[in-house]
């Protein structure tokens, strides 16, 4: 078993969605190079030595088993995967991602490929300012001055602006920041499975709909007209009671909440199943309740084709669902999309999972996680 070493890295970007690129890079560094222990604030600074867009810069503390040379190799590979093209004189060109090793323990390294400590760090405020966030008292092994002293003596007069948005050191911290994530979808879309996987992987409190316990549901599938109103009122009462209890009761050992439904689905299903006069009465009761419930920070809708929904419904084998008609599923799909047209765009994410199998294939599950990350990082 190797011994963990502490390295401090500088990361920057001035092309594309800068915050998203930096955050995805941090996740990748943590995946391939070690454990991210600290992340500084983000600072916006002008391009250094050339005309270009302003940079977002930050610094990281990394615990790694890699040697300095192997760490450099991993970081260069990550830059390349993020679209960085290194050319002669690349130091003064715009870039999607720039990662530099500032310190590796107290080592002094000077080879053809790597110089540590970073030879120009003392002249660059965009390195020293974020570095001071995470290691203000780390002493430069050559200058014998800590980060605060180097920053005070730095002659760089560039404007540096701290950003409100922040970076997360790992995916667990990122998902915790969402506070409440709702996974929605039509019958058989896979919302319960996905919510359960996310709760297990990221230490979330799992809130599942207790639909199977509803005594009116089997009867409704046999005679929809007769049992629609008592079914929907029963669902609404159960959902409201459960939802308010679950979302208001804090769990100190969980990082955030994830549910396989949002209470608004009650109105969507009711609009499809009820007669107009029944629906008008239902909506009055619903609107009163909806004002009181917690709203998700991200509302994810899993879209599946109705043909695949029917296939998955048959596969899971619930007796009372086997007579569901394709036309009913299509109405539910339309109901969700009508609702989403009224929902804040910055909080809703539609993911087409018709070609994905996130149960059997880890890559498909990863696609969904990355889609949620990209959306939240770009919109929240």
From TrEMBL:
GO terms for molecular function: 2-amino-4-hydroxy-6-hydroxymethyldihydropteridine diphosphokinase activity; ATP binding; kinase activity. Its EC number is 2.7.6.3. Coiled coil: none annotated. Pathway: Cofactor biosynthesis; tetrahydrofolate biosynthesis; 2-amino-4-hydroxy-6-hydroxymethyl-7,8-dihydropteridine diphosphate from 7,8-dihydroneopterin triphosphate: step 4/4. GO terms for biological process: folic acid biosynthetic process; tetrahydrofolate biosynthetic process. The keyword Transferase applies. It is an enzyme of class 2 (transferase). Keywords: ATP-binding, Folate biosynthesis, Kinase, Nucleotide-binding, Transferase. Residues 8-136 form the 7,8-dihydro-6-hydroxymethylpterin-pyrophosphokinase domain. It holds the Pfam family dNK. CDD domains: dNK, HPPK. Residues 181-375 form the Deoxynucleoside kinase domain. The keyword Zinc does not apply. PANTHER family: 2-AMINO-4-HYDROXY-6-HYDROXYMETHYLDIHYDROPTERIDINE PYROPHOSPHOKINASE. This is 2-amino-4-hydroxy-6-hydroxymethyldihydropteridine diphosphokinase. It comes from marine sediment metagenome.
């Amino acid at each position: 078993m190797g011994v963990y070493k502490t390295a401090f890295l500088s990361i920057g970007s001035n092309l594309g969605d800068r915050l998203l690129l930096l955050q995805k890079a941090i996740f990748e560094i943590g995946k391939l190079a070690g454990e991210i222990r600290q992340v500084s604030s983000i600072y916006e600074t002008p391009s250094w030595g050339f005309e270009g867009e302003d940079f977002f810069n930050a610094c990281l503390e990394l615990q790694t088993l890699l040697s300095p040379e192997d760490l450099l190799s991993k970081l260069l590979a990550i830059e390349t995967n993020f679209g960085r093209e290194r050319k002669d004189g690349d130091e003064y060109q715009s870039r999607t991602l720039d990662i530099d090793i500032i310190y590796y323990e107290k080592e002094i390294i000077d080879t053809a490929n790597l110089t540590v400590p970073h030879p120009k760090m003392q002249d660059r405020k965009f390195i020293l300012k974020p570095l001071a966030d995470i290691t203000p008292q780390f002493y430069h092994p050559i200058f014998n001055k800590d980060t605060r002293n180097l920053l005070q003596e730095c002659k760089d007069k560039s404007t540096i602006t701290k950003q409100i948005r922040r970076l997360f050191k790992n995916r667990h911290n990122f998902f915790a920041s969402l506070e409440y994530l709702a996974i929605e979808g039509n019958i058989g879309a896979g919302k319960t499975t996905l919510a359960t996987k996310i709760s297990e992987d990221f230490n979330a409190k799992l809130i599942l709909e207790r639909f199977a316990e509803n005594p009116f549901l089997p009867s409704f599938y046999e005679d929809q007209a007769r049992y629609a109103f008592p079914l929907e009122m029963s669902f609404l009462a159960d959902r409201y009671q459960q939802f308010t209890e679950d979302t208001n009761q804090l769990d100190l050992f969980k990082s955030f909440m994830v549910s396989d439904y949002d209470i608004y689905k009650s109105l969507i299903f009711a609009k499809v199943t009820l007669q107009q006069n029944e629906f008008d009465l239902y909506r009055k009761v619903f609107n009163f309740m909806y004002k009181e419930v917690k709203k998700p920070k991200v509302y994810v809708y899993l879209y599946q084709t109705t043909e695949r929904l029917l296939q998955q419904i048959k596969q899971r084998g619930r007796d009372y669902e086997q007579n569901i008609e394709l036309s009913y599923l299509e109405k539910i799909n339309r109901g969700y999309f009508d609702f989403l047209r009224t929902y804040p765009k910055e909080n809703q994410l539609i993911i087409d999972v018709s070609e994905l199998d996130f149960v059997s294939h880890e890559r498909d599950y990863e696609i969904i996680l990355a889609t949620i990350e990209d959306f939240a990082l770009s919109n929240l």
